[in-house]
Amino acid sequence: MTGEVIAFFVLAIVAIMGGMLLLHLSNVVHMVVALVFTFLAIAGIFITLSAEFVAAVQVLIYSGAVTIIMLFGIMLTRHDDVSEKKQIKSSTLLAAGGVGAFFLLMFFAINGMSVSEPATNLHVDNTKRIGELLYTNYLIPFELISVLLLAALIGAIILAKRDDKQEEKP
Amino acid sequence: MNNVPLSGYLLLALVLFCIGLFGALTKRNAVIVLISIELMLNAVNINLVAFAKYGENPGLTGQIFALFTMTVAAAEAAVGLAILMALYRKRKSVHVDEMNHLKQ
Amino acid sequence: MDLTNVYQNNYLVVVIFLLLGILLPVGALTAGRLLRPYKPRKEKYTTYESGIEPFHQSWIQFNVRYYLFALLFVIFDVETVFLYPWAVAYDKLGMFALIEMTVFIVMLAFGLLYAWRKKVLKWI
């Protein structure tokens, strides 16, 4: 057992526990807080995979921005009936069966996979090398990202903004 | 066991993806469905970064694509919640079961 | 393999800080639990000792327009992510990358301008 293996197991257990709590808890705010632990653990997993910059971005975007926007979405809507019906519906069983079948299929696919030697120099000047690649080889996707963000910003404003006039009328 | 094999990371990503998929299929609250989809995208990111290190041609390409996926996920969360706000204004509910306008 | 080990050992400091951060409040609260007197009474468990009894849950529904501030935060947070690698690798990239980044920022500035014109930025 090396430190890397121990770190992987601890992080994996934290991540899966967060996901399980998401399925089990009944209060929506608690669900989001449980998922923050999953996101942070995944950032740790990225560090063990020598992706420092991606780990920082994971903390910045997922545990920061996405969680905040989801909490806003919860606070802006009404959640009176916290207690969901406990009886198991047939659609839930169907979903569980489908997910289970998918899990088994992918599990056997993963087990049959050949292993190659890991790269050892990915962490050296990680951010700098990502920058060099991003602004030379992946220029078109980068500029498309700006178009995507612009479209998302304007579209979301149009969808969410309509309230003012409607609220003042009645 | 000297270091974690590739299949360990892939298995973790698979478990997280399945949790997200199950949540997206069974939860009634639309916000939680959106969060489950974020979890699925995050599991995919683990795969991308793991293959960037352990794949046949290791390099930074997988990490850069993980960055792009995160950006798309953030934009998706923003637009998805905006659609949810517009729906909530009409129906006063965030339950996916009740969003069946087209059925009636 | 040697380089990877050095890189991973650097993060040992982070782990130690995390453990300290968890242990310190846990230790302080446990010490407080052991040291403080424990005399429970019914009045102590109410929210206010005098006044109206609280009813309903503590969180209320906010106006939808606050969502737009969260939205702007998310979009420009994502923009920041792409500024970091550009700034770190600026010496090697030079003029062309500066033009790329200007295009990127101008695109998002259009979005900000649109939000401004739609009076999203006004705090009411």
TrEMBL record, chain A:
The EC number on file is 7.1.1.-
Q: Which Gene3D superfamilies match?
A: NADH-ubiquinone/plastoquinone oxidoreductase chain 6, subunit NuoJ (1.20.120.1200)
Record localization: Cell membrane
Q: Where are its TM segments located?
A: 6-25, 32-49, 55-76, 88-110, 138-160
Entry keywords, A to Z: Cell membrane, Membrane, NAD, Oxidoreductase, Quinone, Transmembrane, Transmembrane helix, Ubiquinone
Where is it chiefly localized? membrane
Taken from the UniProt entry, a GO cellular component term is:
plasma membrane
Q: What class of enzyme is it?
A: translocase
Annotated GO molecular function terms are: NADH dehydrogenase (ubiquinone) activity; oxidoreductase activity; quinone binding
Query: Would the keyword NAD turn up in this protein's UniProt record?
Result: yes
Family, per entry: Belongs to the complex I subunit 6 family.
Q: What is this protein called?
A: NADH-quinone oxidoreductase subunit J
Automatic annotation (TrEMBL), chain B:
Query: Per the record, GO CC terms?
Result: NADH dehydrogenase complex; plasma membrane
Q: Quick one: where is this thing mainly located?
A: membrane
Q: InterPro entries annotated for this entry?
A: NADH_UbQ_OxRdtase_chain4L/K, NUOK/Mnh_C1-like
Q: Name one GO molecular function term.
A: NADH dehydrogenase (quinone) (non-electrogenic) activity
Q: Where in the cell is it found?
A: Cell membrane; Membrane
| Enzyme Commission number(s) | 7.1.1.-
- Any one GO BP annotation for this protein: ATP synthesis coupled electron transport
One of the Pfam families matching this protein, by short name:
Oxidored_q2
- Alphabetized Gene3D superfamilies for the sequence: 1.10.287.3510
> Is Transmembrane one of the keywords?
yes
Task: Give me the segments passing through the membrane.
Answer: 6-25, 32-52, 64-88
**Catalysed reaction(s)?**
a quinone + NADH + 5 H(+)(in) = a quinol + NAD(+) + 4 H(+)(out)
Assigned keywords, A-Z: Cell membrane, Membrane, NAD, Oxidoreductase, Quinone, Translocase, Transmembrane, Transmembrane helix, Transport, Ubiquinone
Q: Per UniProt, what is the membrane topology?
A: Multi-pass membrane protein
Stretches of the chain forming a coiled coil according to its record: none
Q: What does this protein do?
A: NDH-1 shuttles electrons from NADH, via FMN and iron-sulfur (Fe-S) centers, to quinones in the respiratory chain. The immediate electron acceptor for the enzyme in this species is believed to be a menaquinone. Couples the redox reaction to proton translocation (for every two electrons transferred, four hydrogen ions are translocated across the cytoplasmic membrane), and thus conserves the redox energy in a proton gradient.
Q: How does it assemble?
A: NDH-1 is composed of 14 different subunits. Subunits NuoA, H, J, K, L, M, N constitute the membrane sector of the complex.
**Entry's family note:** Belongs to the complex I subunit 4L family.
The entry's protein name is NADH-quinone oxidoreductase subunit K
Give the organism the record lists. Fictibacillus macauensis ZFHKF-1
Lineage start: Bacteria, Bacillati, Bacillota, Bacilli, Bacillales
Q: Which gene encodes it?
A: nuoK
TrEMBL record, chain C:
Q: Which Pfam families match?
A: Oxidored_q4 (PF00507)
Q: What class of enzyme is it?
A: translocase
Q: How does it sit in the membrane?
A: Multi-pass membrane protein
Q: What is its EC number?
A: 7.1.1.-
The principal location of this protein is membrane
Subcellular localization, as worded in the UniProt entry? Cell membrane; Membrane
Recorded catalytic activity of this chain's protein = a quinone + NADH + 5 H(+)(in) = a quinol + NAD(+) + 4 H(+)(out)
Keywords for the protein's UniProt record, in alphabetical order = Cell membrane, Membrane, NAD, Oxidoreductase, Quinone, Translocase, Transmembrane, Transmembrane helix, Transport
Spans traversing the lipid bilayer: 12-35, 66-87, 93-116
A single GO cellular-component term from the record reads: plasma membrane
Domain of life, per UniProt, equals Bacteria
Q: Which GO terms describe its molecular function?
A: NADH dehydrogenase (quinone) (non-electrogenic) activity; NADH dehydrogenase (ubiquinone) activity; quinone binding
PANTHER family linked: NADH-UBIQUINONE OXIDOREDUCTASE CHAIN 3
Outline what the protein does: NDH-1 shuttles electrons from NADH, via FMN and iron-sulfur (Fe-S) centers, to quinones in the respiratory chain. The immediate electron acceptor for the enzyme in this species is believed to be a menaquinone. Couples the redox reaction to proton translocation (for every two electrons transferred, four hydrogen ions are translocated across the cytoplasmic membrane), and thus conserves the redox energy in a proton gradient.
Subunit details: NDH-1 is composed of 14 different subunits. Subunits NuoA, H, J, K, L, M, N constitute the membrane sector of the complex.
- Family statement: Belongs to the complex I subunit 3 family.
Protein name from the UniProt record:
NADH-quinone oxidoreductase subunit A
Q: Which organism is it from?
A: Fictibacillus macauensis ZFHKF-1
Q: What's the name of its gene?
A: nuoA
